[in-house]
Amino acid sequence: MNSRRSIIPVAIIALIAGLLATAWNVMANITPAPVLVPCGIYTGVHPQAFTDTIIPMDPAGNTLIFIMRNDNADPTAGATEPPLSEADHLTDYVGNMVRTGPNTWDYTGIAYGTKKVEDQGMPEILYVGVVQGTVTSTEDGNAMTTDGNFALYMPEQDVDGDGFPDADQEPVWCSPPGGFTITRMPILSPCVPTPPPPEGG
């Protein structure tokens, strides 16, 4: 009778050990899905051509930084009245992207509209531009679609002077939601040299 009682716990332990071993073998043979880490130079047209440099801050791509450059952007942000209309330079938009899903990130970027002031080493900040929204990447990371807003703040809305609008401030202007697609720059084939014009032509 005692031997039968001792057999039951041993059998249960053996069964559990077998299940654990099977599960371990199955898990060992599973190849983990690759983690999407978009990076590189992306280009887009919204409404003018621009470049967007995306750099991962960690191997998993949970935090990215971006630098959006558009040298042809209107520094006045389309304003016809001072002080915005007096801006003569717009800095690059720089910001962070934080992963919210397998292929999505929330982003915030900031830029400054400035005016050169004579006899001063630093330009005057006329407004602060903020872009916010969500980025969704394709599975291969070769294209990203944004969906978000653009907002304008005045320098006096940064009371603590940290370069960002204070949390309790409302923008003086906010765009309706919108988006655009950017595409990662491919490696292009070399061009074929143009033959020189014929002599005497």
Written as H for each helix and E for each strand, in order along the chain, the element string is: HEEEEEEEEEE
Mean pLDDT: 86
Distance between the first and last residues' Cα: 113 Å
Name the strands of the widest sheet in spatial order. 1-2-3-5-6-7-8-10
Global structural class: mainly beta
* Residues in helices, as a percent range: 10-25%
Q: What is the name of the CATH architecture of the largest domain?
A: Beta Barrel
Can you tell me the CATH topology of the largest domain?
Lipocalin
CATH class of the largest domain: Mainly Beta
The largest β sheet comes out as: 8 strands, antiparallel, barrel
Number of helices: 1
Provide a brief overview of the structure.
The protein is mostly beta strands and 201 residues long. It has one helix spanning 2-28; strands at residues 40-45, 49-56, 63-69, 89-90, 93-101, 104-115, 124-137, 143-153, 173-174, 181-184.
Overview of this structure, please?
With 201 residues, the chain is mainly beta. The chain has two domains: 30 residues; 145 residues, Beta Barrel (Lipocalin), CATH 2.40.128. It contains one helix and ten strands; from the N terminus they run H-E-E-E-E-E-E-E-E-E-E. The chain has an eight-stranded antiparallel beta barrel. The model has no long low-confidence stretch (mean pLDDT 86).
